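ok, trying the design again with the full structure, not the truncated one.
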């Protein structure tokens, strides 16, 4: 009797260590062994890095690449030939990838406005998912994705917040929770990076040959093509991303919430911001943003200054946990704990800005969970959703410009109509919001 793919994977991982696996075959055949077959949707940058990291682990094959940019498909297929002997199928429509029975897991490396639909459709198709952060580009999409994961139970989901798999971050969380810092009253989070501002606006042009720009826009509103709103640069346009707040905020705020054991939205949020540093730039997202999140026993603040790269404690980005008996300053270079007034009482080295060890551990964790059918990954969808929603309410407060806000996570509403306008994006036909 042929076992269903998942059942076979479960049995084979329990009993099949050291098995030999047959060569890759075309779509439509049954799963066969402890090999995890993956497909990548969105190949230009981080999606490719995820795939390359995934292929460093044993027993992983890439069956398909999908992108709306033909140039990326050609480039990444060539890159892939150096990493595996098998030739992947190439697609421009992610829905065709989800029809491939042999594909166990999809990696979603598209811009933020293109996370929700492939994710929900992948849940429906019963695929495991490694989706990049921030989970989505709006509060409503985050909720829709958590809802879809709960409805189609059993899919193994990892959000690409690889810091959770960094040993030094895990040690930091343990240290903060140990109580050594005394009563923690303040968590400060900041990110200042040059890349998050743009040059003055360039003229719109025709899309480059080979680019299906209509599909790149997808559910977002129709706008002419502009290189300042395309590969990589989309981050600074509200329709597709949320600037430093959603790009770095989700990584760093995630650590703050995890260490402080926060699982719900804050009591209140107060944000202000604007483009004060580089007002002539084409970026829409705020180069200057300050957010205060209020909790019962402490406050957390976020600050970003885009276009500059310096910051508190000589760190362009990082976190501070301040307690009655000491404080910790941290970023990917590592962390130092200061007790009383003395010099660092404990220092732990990190894996640096590119955090390759964390990515390697995070992809390994995903593969392990896929093989053992363990849905408790290092960053499940709920954890990815929580910090993405923190980032979004921070941006929304400043965009709505209405002072302090309360977000009711049960009703999925703010206490102010102006802020509520930012909760759910209007999807452009033929794309439909996944209700
Ligand atoms: N975890 C991390 O440290 C980290 C680092 C960088 C980026 N990211 C995240 O990764 C995601 C991608 O970022 P990036 O910098 O690689 O963006 P990018 O613009 O460089 O690449 C996105 C790719 O997706 C493709 N694409 C767009 N719409 C598509 C669709 N409908 N179907 C198939 N392909 C489509 C684009 O053509 C492009 O090739 C973002 O969500 C970003 O926040 C995470």
């Amino acid at each position: 009797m042929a076992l269903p793919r998942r059942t076979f994977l479960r049995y084979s991982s329990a009993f099949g260590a050291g098995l030999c696996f047959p060569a890759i075959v075309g779509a439509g055949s049954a799963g066969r062994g402890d090999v995890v077959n993956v497909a990548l949707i969105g190949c230009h940058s981080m999606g490719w890095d995820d795939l390359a990291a995934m292929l460093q682990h044993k027993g992983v094959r890439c069956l398909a690449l999908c992108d709306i940019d033909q140039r990326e498909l050609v480039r990444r297929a060539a890159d892939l030939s150096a990493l595996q002997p098998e030739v992947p199928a190439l697609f421009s429509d992610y829905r065709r990838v989800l029809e491939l029975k042999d594909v166990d897991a999809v990696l979603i490396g598209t811009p933020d406005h293109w996370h929700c639909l492939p994710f929900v459709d992948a849940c429906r198709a019963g695929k495991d998912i490694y989706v990049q952060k921030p989970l989505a580009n709006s509060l409503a999409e985050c909720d829709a994705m958590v809802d879809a994961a709960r409805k189609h139970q059993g899919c193994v989901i990892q959000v690409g917040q690889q810091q959770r798999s960094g040993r030094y971050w895990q040690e930091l969380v343990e240290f903060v929770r140990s109580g050594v810092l005394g009563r923690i009253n303040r968590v400060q989070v900041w990110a200042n990076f040059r890349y998050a501002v743009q040059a003055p606006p360039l003229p719109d042009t025709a899309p480059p040959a080979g680019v299906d720009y209509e599909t790149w826009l997808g559910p977002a509103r129709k706008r002419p093509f502009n290189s300042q709103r395309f590969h990589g640069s989309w981050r600074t346009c509200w329709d597709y991303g949320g600037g430093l707040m959603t790009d770095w905020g989700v990584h760093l705020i995630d650590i703050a919430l995890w260490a402080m054991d926060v699982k719900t939205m804050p009591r209140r949020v107060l944000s202000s911001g604007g483009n004060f540093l580089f007002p002539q730039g084409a970026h829409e997202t705020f180069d200057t943003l300050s957010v205060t999140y209020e909790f019962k026993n402490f406050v957390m603040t976020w600050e970003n200054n885009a276009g500059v790269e310096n910051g508190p404690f000589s760190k362009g980005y990082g976190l501070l946990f301040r307690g009655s008996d000491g404080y910790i300053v941290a970023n990917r270079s590592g962390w130092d704990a200061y007790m009383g007034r003395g010099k660092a009482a404990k220092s732990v080295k990190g894996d640096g800005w590119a955090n390759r060890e964390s990515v390697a551990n995070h992809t390994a964790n995903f593969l392990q969970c896929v093989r053992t059918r363990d849905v408790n990954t290092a960053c499940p969808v709920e954890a990815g959703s929580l910090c993405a929603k923190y980032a979004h309410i921070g941006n929304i407060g400043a965009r709505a410009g209405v002072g302090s806000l309360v977000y009711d996570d049960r009703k999925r509403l703010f206490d102010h109509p102006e802020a509520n306008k930012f909760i759910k994006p209007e999807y452009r036909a033929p794309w439909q919001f996944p209700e």
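Keeping the full-length input from now on. The CA atoms of residues 99 and 408 lie 38 Å apart.
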